[in-house]
Amino acid sequence: MKLTDEQKKAVEFIGAPTLVVSGAGSGKTTVLTNKIVSLIQKGFRSERILAITFTNKAAEEMKSRLLTLTGLPENKFPWVRTYHSACFRILKIRCGLLGYKSPLQIYDAYQQEKLLKEIVIGMNFDKKHVSLVQYHISRAKNTGNPLKYFDLRPRVYTVPLVQVFNAYEKELFARNAVDFDNILLKTRDLLRDHKNVREYYQNLFEYILCDEFQDTNPLQAVLTDMLVKNGNLFCVGDDYQAIYGFRGSDIDQFLSFPKKYKDAKIFRLEQNFRSADEIVQIADRLISHNTQRMEKKCFSEKHGGDVKFQKFSDEEQEAEWVGKKVKVLADTGISVDRMAVLYRTKFCSRVFEKAFRRLGIPYQMMGSKGFFERKEIMDINAYIKSAVFPKDDVSFERIINIPPRGIGKKAVEKIAETKAAGVSLQGATRKSLAEKLMSSKNHNALSQLIQTLDEIQNMPPEKAIRKVLSEFDYMAYLRKYVKDDAADYVSREENIKELLWSASKKETLLDYLEEVDLIHEDKSEENEDRTRGVKLSTIHASKGLEYHVVFIAGCEEDLLPHWRSKSSESEFQEERRLMYVAITRAEKYLFMSYATFRMGNSAKKSRFLDEIILE
C-alpha cells in the first residue's frame, strides 16, 4: 500500500516522542510496520526495536508484514510482542532478583479463580463473591498501586480485599507463580528496584513503538517510561475507540501525551480507507459530543454508503426484520460472512439466534468460550502443567481423577491431610505412595499417573500430549463425557487435533506453556472465521474487525448508553465511544435500530441516535 503524505511524514519523522492520532480504518498498522522498516533503514537494529501490540495475533500479523517488507528472518524481530509477553521475557530471566526460582509459572484465569476460592472459603466468606474479588484484585494491580486502590475500595460486600490480596500473593509466591497481572507488576518492581537491570533494557531498546496506545493502563504507561531512552518513542492509537475502561485502561495516558512529553510531535491520520464517507460523517458527528478527545476531522473518498434508522415495537420484530434484510442482501450477492449484528450486551443475541434459526440463516457467535478455556484443552494442559510445575495444586487436583481412576473427593482430602507445610498436593501424593498409605487400587492408579508425569517432563510438547491421550485413553473418556453426542465429540476431537498441531511448533514444554498462558490476551479473537455465517457479536468483541454490512441493534437508553454508565461522565463518554466503534465497523451498509418495548418493558430511543440524526 502506498503511503499518504500524512502517513509518510509520521513514518519518516525522528527526533522526539511521537503520537499518531489515527482515525478508524486509517491504516495505522501500515504506518507502524513502515515505521519499523524506516528505522531499520536509518541504522536501528531490528533486534533492538521493542514493538508493543495488545494481542498475540496482532504481534504475529506485524511480524508477518515485517518479514515481507524487509526480507529479514523472524528471529530478527524478537521484541515484537504484547506487553505481557515482553515483560515475561524479562521477568523469567531475572526473577531470582525478586526471590523466585526458574522456571517461573504463569497462573491462568482458572487457576487464579480456584486459588482465590480456597482463600475466600478459608476465611469463612461466601464463594459467590470470588469472581468480583478476582476482578478488583486485577484492577488494583493494573493501577500500579494495589494498596491505594484497596484504600478506596476496601471490601466486596463483606470480603476484606486487602486481606484476601495479601493471602493470595503469599500463596502465589510460595508456589513460585505469577498471575497475568503480576507479569507487569513484578517487572515494574524489578525495573524500579534494580537500576542495573533498568539501564540494561534502556540500552537494549534503541526504539520503542506502541500500538493501540489509547488502551494503555497506568502500569503499562509506567513500564514504557522506564524503558524509553532519549525520547525514542512512537505511539499509535485512536482515543475515539478507547472502550476498555472497565479493564483498567486509562484514556488520560493518551490525551496527556503532549503535556507529558513537552517536545512531543503529533500526527493525525484522518482518511478512512474502510467505510463510505456517509458512515464516517455520522460517526464523527456522534463523537463530537465527547469532551474527552483529541480533535480530528475524519473523511473517506469512498461514497455511496447506505445508512438507515429503524424503529420496532419489540425485540422480536427487530430480529425478524434484520433476518429478512440479511436474506435480501444475500440475494444481491453479499456473502453472509461479511455481515454482522452488533449489540451492547450478550443477552441481546437470543432473539437473533432464534430468528436466524427459523429463517435458515447461518450465524456465528463471536466472543464465546476461548479455545484454551474448553474442557478437553484444559484437561490436557493440566497434565502438562503438573509435569513441569509439581507445586501447581490446581492443575494436579484437576487431573487426579480425570479420566476417572477411582480417586474420589475423600481420597484427595486424605492425601491433603498428610501434607506438611510447603508441600504440594503432588508432593503429598508421592509421599503417600512411597509410604503405601492407600488402598492397592488407589496406589496403582496414582502410581501410573505420577509415572506418566515423570516420563513426559522432558518430552517435546506434541509427544507429551500424545502420551497422555494414549496412556489414559482420554478419547474414550471424552466420548462417554459427551454422552454419545456425535457432533460434540467431533468438535472436541478437532480441538485436540488443533492442540497437537500447535504443540508441534514448540520444542520444550516450558515454551509451549508460556504461549498457552500468554494467549489469555486474545480470548475475543480465538473464534474468528472458524464458522461461516452472520456474525453475532457484542460491540466490544467486534473492535478491530470490519464488515460490509452492520446492524446495530438495541439502540436504546439504559442499553446503549448502558444504565450503569450514567452516574459517571467518563463512563458515559466511553459508551459514546462504544457506539462510535460499532458504527465504524461498517464499510457500506449500516442499519441502526431500537424497540419501544424490550423484554416486556417500555424502552426509549438512545440519545446517541438523536445526536446523529438531529444535526
Give a written overview of the molecule.
It is a single chain. With 615 residues, the protein is an alpha/beta fold. Strand 17 and strand 18 (601-602) form a beta hairpin.
Largest sheet: 6 strands, parallel
* Poorly predicted tracts of residues: 524-530
Counted by DSSP, the helix tally is 28
Structural class: alpha/beta
What radius of gyration results from the CA coordinates? 26 Å
Task: Give the fraction of residues assigned to helices.
Answer: 40-55%
Average pLDDT rating:
92
Question: Termini separation (Å)?
Answer: 35 Å
The main sheet orders its strands as 3-2-8-9-1-10
Question: Which geometry do the CA atoms define?
Answer: globular
Beta strand count: 18
As a percent range, the share of strand residues is 5-15%
Overview features:
615 residues, 18 strands, alpha/beta, six-stranded parallel sheet
Outline of the structure:
With 615 residues, the protein is of the alpha/beta class.
Would you spell out the secondary-structure blueprint of this structure?
Layout: H1 5-12, E1 18-22, H2 28-41, E2 49-53, H3 56-70, E3 80-82, H4 83-94, E4 105-107, H5 109-122, H6 130-143, H7 146-152, E5 155-156, E6 159-160, H8 161-174, E7 177-179, H9 180-193, H10 195-204, E8 207-210, H11 218-227, E9 233-237, H12 252-255, H13 257-260, E10 265-269, H14 277-287, E11 306-312, H15 315-331, E12 339-343, H16 349-359, E13 363-365, H17 375-388, H18 393-399, H19 409-417, H20 425-434, H21 440-456, H22 461-471, H23 474-481, H24 486-504, H25 509-518, E14 534-538, H26 539-542, E15 547-552, H27 569-583, E16 586-595, E17 597-598, E18 601-602, H28 607-613
Parallel strand pairs: 1-9, 1-10, 2-3, 2-8, 4-7, 8-9, 11-16, 12-14, 12-15, 13-14, 15-16
Antiparallel strand pairs: 5-6, 17-18
Helix pairs in contact: 1-2, 2-3, 4-9, 5-6, 5-8, 6-7, 9-10, 9-11, 14-27, 14-28, 15-16, 17-18, 17-21, 17-22, 20-21, 22-24
